[in-house]
C-alpha cells in the first residue's frame, strides 16, 4: 500500500524542514478559513483523494486493501471540484457555516522522500482534524496521508493527496473542511 | 506380505461427471469416490483436519473442498493444499471392472482412517 | 430447510400518541424525534414488521457473495445462493449470539463463528463445530441450529428488501403503485441498474424520521437550505420550483415520491453536462419503455422515500438507508445507482458527482446535516418537545380526477407526503397486527 523506507531516499534535514513548514502553513490557512489561499497551493493537475474505507476480510481485499479507485469516496477531486467546494464555503447563504466552525488541524509523523522526478517529493504523514461548532459540537477526524509535493519556485504545490482514515463509518455528519 | 482388498464402491452409472459420493465402510473408514472428467479416484472420506465428510464438499477443478472449514485436498494425490489442512489425505488406487468401480485398499490396521 | 426466526410478541401500543401526531389538524410534536419509549415501539412495530431495503442485486452477483447491513438495529447477512436466490440471516451465531460475519462485504464459502467454531455454509446450515464429537454424544440435531433466516425476502427491479414478519403483505402489495414511479429511476433502460462499488457510512445525531421525511416530500427546503450549494455548483440559485407548471406529490402506505417533469433538474446540480446529455439521449427510449410521462422524471427535481427508511434522489442517483441507532442518532448508508448499460465515463461522472453533492462531503448535504440534527436536539427540551409543529402545507390538494396511480396531490411544494408518512407511522405504532392497519389509500392501484 505505501512504499517502504527502503525503496525511497529521505531528503536532507533542511529540505525536510522546508516541506514540513509548507504543510504546517497549509493547515494554518485552513484553520483561518483562508480557502482561496489554500486553493492556491494546489497544483493545476491535483488529485485530491479520500476513498471510502471498506471493512473487508484479509482473504477478500479490494484493489488497495481497504479501498479501490472506482468505489465510493469522500473526496475524489481535481482542481475544479475543490474550487466548487471552496465556492460554497464563501457563500453568505452557507447557513451551516454561520457561526463559523472552529478548526484545529494537526500534522505529525512527517516523512519526506525524493520522488521519481526532480523537484518532486513523496510525503507520508499522519493528521488530526478537530472541529467545533455551536456550543458543544466536537468532531475529530484522523488518519494517514500520502502526498506528492512539487517544487514551485521557493515554495511547493500539492499535486497528489491520498487521505486514509481508519474508520469504515465516519463518526460525524459531514466534513466541512479539508484534510 | 501386504494384503490388498478389492472394495466395491459403486457403479459407474451412479457417479456422474464432477461428482463425489460417500461410500460407507466400517472396516476401512468411509470412502469418497470421485469422477473427474471421466477419470475415477478414491480417497478417505474423513477430512484430516476435523470431523467432516469430504463427499459433502465441492469439487473445484481437481481439488475437493471440505464443507466445514474449506480446506482443500488434491484429489489424485491426496495432498493437503494448506491452512487449515496440513495432513495429506489417504488415497486408494481405483480399478474399473465393467460397470463397477473398486478401490484397492491395503489391509494394514495402522493405516486405517476411522470413520 | 431454513431456520426461520421466531416472531416477536406484540406489546401494547403507547397511549397519547395522538397528542404528538395529529395529521388531520396538520401538526406533530418534536417528542416523536427524541422519546425513548416511542423509539422502542418503532423498533418493534415498524422495523420488525415492514419491508426494509437490504441490498442491490448487483452487489452480490455470484454464489457466496455477501454484504452485511442492518434491519432496524438487527444486524443481518445478505448472501447469494447457488440456486440464484438470496437469503438474509441474522448475523448472530445460534449458539451464544456472537457475530459470525465481521466484514461489510465479500465472497465466501460460509461463516465460522470465532467462539466455538460453529461452521455454517452459504445456505446457513450448520455443517460442523469444534469438537463435534461431543455434540453427537448429546443427540444434537444440527438441522435445527443453522443461521436464523428472516421471514421474507423479495426484490423489485434489483432492489432487495426483507422483512422479519411472516404476516407482512407481499413486497408488491407493500410498495403498491409507488413502484410505477420508482421505475423512472430503476427501470428506465434495458438491463436495469447497478450500484457503484462500496458504501459510504456516516453518523448523524438526529432522529431517522427527519431525514426520511425530508426525502419523502420536502423539496420545499431545497431553494433555501441549498442555496449556497447551488451557487457553488451552478453559479446561481436552485431552480425555482414554484415556477414549474406541473409537479406532484404522490404517496401510498407512507411511501412518498415528489417530482417535477423537467427531466434534468436534479442531475443538473451535479454540474456535469455529460450527464444531462446522457439523460436527454436515452429519453426517447425511456418514453417508449415507460411512456412520455415517466420519461420526464428520469433526472427531474424529485425525491422519494419508501417507508420506513429507504430513500433516493433520481438525477443525483444517490440511494440511502437512514438506519435507526437510538431516538436521536442514525447511521447513514449511501450508495450511487447507475444504469448497467450506461457508458463507463457516464457511470464515473455519477460516482464523482453524487459524492460532490450528496455525501458527508457533499456541498448540498452539508447544510441538511445541521437542520436535521437541530430539529432533533431542540426536542430535548421537555417543553419544546410537546409544542405543535406545523405540517399542514397543501391540506386540500388531493387530485381525484387524474390518470396517475397512488394518492396524488397537486404540486411538489406540499406537505401531503410528510403527513402520509407520519400517518402510516402512527398507524403502524397503533396496530397490533397488519390486519389492524387502516387502509387510507384513496388513489388508483394502476396507471390508466
Automatic annotation (TrEMBL), chain A:
Top-level taxon in the UniProt lineage: Bacteria
InterPro entries the record matches: NTF2-like_dom_sf, Rng_hydr_dOase-bsu
Any one Gene Ontology BP term: 3-phenylpropionate catabolic process
UniProt keywords, alphabetically: Aromatic hydrocarbons catabolism, Dioxygenase, Oxidoreductase
Entries under SUPFAM superfamilies matching the protein: NTF2-like (SSF54427)
A Pfam family that the UniProt record links to this protein: Ring_hydroxyl_B
A GO term for molecular function: dioxygenase activity
Family: Belongs to the bacterial ring-hydroxylating dioxygenase beta subunit family.
UniProt xrefs under NCBIfam families: PRK10069.1
Identification of the protein by name: Ethylbenzene dioxygenase beta subunit
Species the sequence originates in: Marinobacterium iners DSM 11526
